[in-house]
Amino acid sequence: MAEKQFVTQIADIEQDFSQWYTDVILKTEMVDYGPVKGTMVIRPYGYGVWELIQKELDGRFKETGHLNAYFPMLIPESYLRKEAEHVEGFAPEVAWVTHGGNEELAERLVVRPTSETIICEMYHRWVQSYRDLPLLYNQWCNVVRWEKSTRPFLRTSEFLWQEGHTVHATEEEAKAETLRMLEVYREFAENVLAIPVFCGRKSEKEKFAGAEATYSIEAMMKDGKALQAGTSHYLSDHFSKAFDIQFLDKDGQLKYCSQTSWGVSTRLIGGIVMVHGDARGLVMPPKVAPIQVVILPIAPHKEGVTQKAEELFALLKKAGIRVKLDDRDASPGWKFNEWEMKGVPVRLEVGPKDIEKNQVVLARRDNFEKLFVPMENLEQTVAALLEQIQTNMLEKARAHKQAHTVSAQDWQAFTEAIENECFVYALWCGERACEDAIKEETGATARNTSIEEQTVEGVCVHCGKKARYNFYFAKAY
Prior knowledge:
Blueprint: H1 2-7, H2 17-27, E1 31-33, E2 40-42, H3 44-63, E3 67-68, E4 74-76, H4 77-80, H5 84-90, E5 95-100, E6 103-111, H6 116-126, E7 135-144, E8 158-168, H7 171-191, E9 197-201, E10 213-220, E11 226-236, H8 238-242, E12 246-248, E13 254-256, E14 258-265, H9 267-276, E15 293-297, H10 305-318, E16 323-325, H11 332-341, E17 346-350, H12 352-357, E18 359-364, E19 370-374, H13 378-403, E20 405-407, H14 411-419, E21 423-428, H15 432-442, E22 445-449, E23 469-474
Parallel strand pairs: 3-7, 15-16, 15-17, 20-21
Antiparallel strand pairs: 1-2, 4-6, 5-6, 7-8, 8-14, 9-10, 10-11, 11-14, 12-13, 17-18, 18-19, 21-23, 22-23
């Protein structure tokens, strides 16, 4: 009865997915609303996930030769206006600083919505010769975009992210970098977050303001909607011309650099919640779970139980497992429900009978299976179980992705698939007017298409004109 009462604190995931999401992230203490509309306070449990995301990604960035740096969050308005497409794309979301103390500023300052402009100004100073290239920099920071419609983690006025900004001597090097970092994101999403993704190029409408081409990883949520989980942009020489980033090449000629930028943000946390969560709350992939194992002593008043729980805690901690001992004065059932809602991958129970049998009980969060395992070599058993859970969660998400992806040959099949909460793969003309009409009629947007050049035969699923692409469409967050 206590379990049912606890779970009723969150909405039914099948009946109201949106409310379920909000209930889960608030009640598991991942996040709270900030005092300024559209902002969020990331609480320790949510920030713990972000720290693990940072750690995993930062290691990958360093392995590929990137260095971390930090650039100012205040950007002169004149910098933003140097690249025409860029300023047009971000102007509606920009927050302005107009006063310093009581004095009005001579030039308005932009609160960083993204850092291309301020970083390009520095690259203009730093790049002189081909010997200075490439520059492979990344920064971890916050950005501000004055969003009209917000939801914690998914879309907020201020959020945390990383943004890579690289400079290259040739277009070929920049293009290769763009796709290399896209692959880093894909591998990370699948192997760390257990989220399978659609990996490809965005439409012209959906590309980053000022880019030559934008590539993305698109994740499918439990409700069939898309979440743009990461982007990698090939900027060509658009920003280097705007900011006069030139270098003296080996042939003695001055040339403009080619650039890239790429980023992921705290919206990944929202993706984890919406891909893996269930009726009981969060289901955390072990690799980014702040707590991988929670130890619950059963009948702790009995002799030796608390001591054994503490021994097991020390054993697992020493083995590098993120473990918590819950010795609070509360009923086991209440604790079970709390840690299930928080999505901790493994619950370890130990009581008097377990001690007699020299065993513990391991309860998996991903499939609710209970295992009775010996205490001997427990750290190896738990480590192997965490790997199994990670693999199982990816396979489960892949099965859902496959089951909810439809290849539509005509408009009726397209609209039915969108109504049935699916991604749709269909022939498309690639024209902006058609893209707008599809969104107007179905609510679906163009997500991405294959990275490779396509040769397609047939007509657009919507307008009947000659098709240029096979494209993925879906409703999106």
